[in-house]
């Protein structure tokens, strides 16, 4: 079985999407494993990592909980893994597949205290470690080099993800790739940025926030950006008209001026009203008329906005987006070099 361990250079690097994109054109049966998940939501009062569920759905796998044998939490102040941590991971490895694509921690270096870092897990599982990072200039290259030093002999290479076509691609190809290759860090792929793949549906936002749907509208509408409405209605309207993309506005349930301004902007696809404060009837009537979802949540405005924004780029990839993702990865990742890594183990 060919094994590859994908580790994020920084948070939200796009590991899950990259893995699902790769799985679409690898030869043979592909299995997924995330040895240590992150408690990004809760099910039945217990911490739960949604990535296993998403991978199981896309790859046609059963028992998604088994794909993430350990789920780490930030409470209390540090996570102490169970005594049988490695046994749980080993049990999850007893499967039949041609490829095993392993997803790492939230960011490279996480788990050094608990003894369950990406480098340690990759070493014990006998899998080459492929770094996944986004490109934002010199700092991103330095992060890759720092991670490469920690990875040591486990390092197989790096894949740059969501690289800007206009500015990033020329720099990475002409300067970054030769510089890294000269330093012993193979560049296995450069995946261009695709805005459509970072969108999240309002239904997913509702679930994450535990919201109540006051106006259903189009809950499958996609949102690329969340804006906090904390100014006057007139100022909000001027601001909304300058912001590109599909938007959702997060504001207090008592801010009728901002709600009305948002509903007059065609790019606004949803309203998220905070503090469990119900809006005025005219606002709901206007939302029904425009078919715009109105979601009531208990959180304060900043907490709700930060939680919603955290979903961008982490939403499950399905349908036409999955095909787009697979095409991008197929054209951008050097599969031959990836296979060569597995042959050395």
Task: Report on this structure.
By secondary structure, this protein is an alpha/beta fold. The chain folds into two domains: 2-195 and 316-343, 3-Layer(aba) Sandwich (Rossmann fold); 200-311, Udp-n-acetylmuramoylalanyl-d-glutamate--2,6- Diaminopimelate Ligase, Chain: A, domain 1, CATH 3.40.1390.20. It is built from 13 helices and 17 strands. Strand 8 (129-134), helix 5 (138-151) and strand 9 (155-163) form a beta-alpha-beta unit. Helix 1 packs across helix 12 (319-332) and helix 9 (256-263) runs parallel beside helix 10 (281-290). The longest helix is centred in the middle third of the chain and has 15 residues, at 168-182. The N and C termini lie close together (10 Å). The mean pLDDT is 88.
Q: What is the residue-averaged pLDDT? A: 88
CATH superfamily (homologous) name of the largest domain = P-loop containing nucleotide triphosphate hydrolases
Strand order in the sheet with the most strands: 2-7-1-8-9-10
Unreliable stretches covering 5 or more consecutive residues: none
- Alpha-carbon Rg, integer: 22 Å
Cα(first) to Cα(last) distance is 10 Å
What is the count of structural domains?
A: 2
Helix vs. strand class: alpha/beta
Shape: globular
Helix content: 25-40%
Shape-level CATH architecture of the largest domain: 3-Layer(aba) Sandwich
CATH fold topology of the largest domain? Rossmann fold
User: What is the percentage of strand-forming residues?
Assistant: 15-25%
Order of SSEs, N→C? Answer: EHEEEEHEHEHEHEHEEHEEEHEHEHEHHH
Continuous helix count: 13
């Amino acid at each position: 079985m060919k094994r590859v361990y994908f580790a994020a250079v920084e948070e939200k690097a796009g590991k899950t999407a990259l893995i699902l994109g790769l799985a679409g054109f690898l030869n043979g049966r592909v299995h997924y494993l995330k040895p240590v998940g992150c408690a990004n939501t809760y099910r039945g009062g217990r911490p739960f990592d949604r990535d296993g569920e998403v991978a199981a759905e896309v790859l046609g796998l059963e028992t998604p909980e088994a794909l993430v044998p350990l789920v780490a939490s930030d409470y209390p102040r540090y996570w102490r893994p169970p005594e049988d941590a490695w046994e749980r991971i080993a049990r999850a490895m007893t499967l039949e597949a041609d490829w095993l694509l392993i997803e790492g921690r939230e960011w490279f270096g996480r788990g050094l205290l608990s003894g369950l870092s990406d480098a340690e897990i990759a070493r014990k599982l006998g899998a080459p470690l492929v770094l996944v990072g986004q490109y934002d200039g010199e700092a991103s290259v330095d992060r890759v080099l720092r991670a490469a030093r920690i990875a040591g002999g486990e390092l197989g290479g790096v894949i740059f993800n969501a690289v800007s076509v206009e500015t990033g691609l020329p720099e990475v190809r002409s300067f970054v790739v030769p510089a890294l290759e000269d330093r012993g860090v193979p560049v296995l792929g450069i995946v261009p940025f695709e805005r459509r793949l970072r969108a999240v549906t309002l239904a997913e936002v509702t679930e994450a926030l535990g919201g109540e749907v006051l106006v259903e509208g189009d809950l499958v509408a996609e949102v690329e950006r969340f804006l906090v409405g904390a100014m006057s209605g007139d100022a909000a309207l001027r601001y909304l008209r300058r912001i590109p993309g599909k938007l959702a506005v997060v504001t207090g349930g008592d801010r009728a001026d901002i709600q009305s301004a948002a509903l007059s902007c065609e790019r606004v696809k949803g309203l998220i009203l905070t503090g469990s404060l119900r809006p005025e009837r005219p606002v709901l009537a206007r939302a029904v008329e425009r078919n715009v979802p109105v979601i009531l949540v208990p959180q304060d405005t900043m907490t709700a906005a930060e939680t919603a924004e955290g979903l961008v780029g982490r939403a499950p990839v399905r349908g036409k987006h999955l095909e787009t993702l697979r095409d991008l990865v197929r054209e951008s990742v050097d599969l031959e070099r990836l296979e060569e890594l597995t042959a050395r183990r």
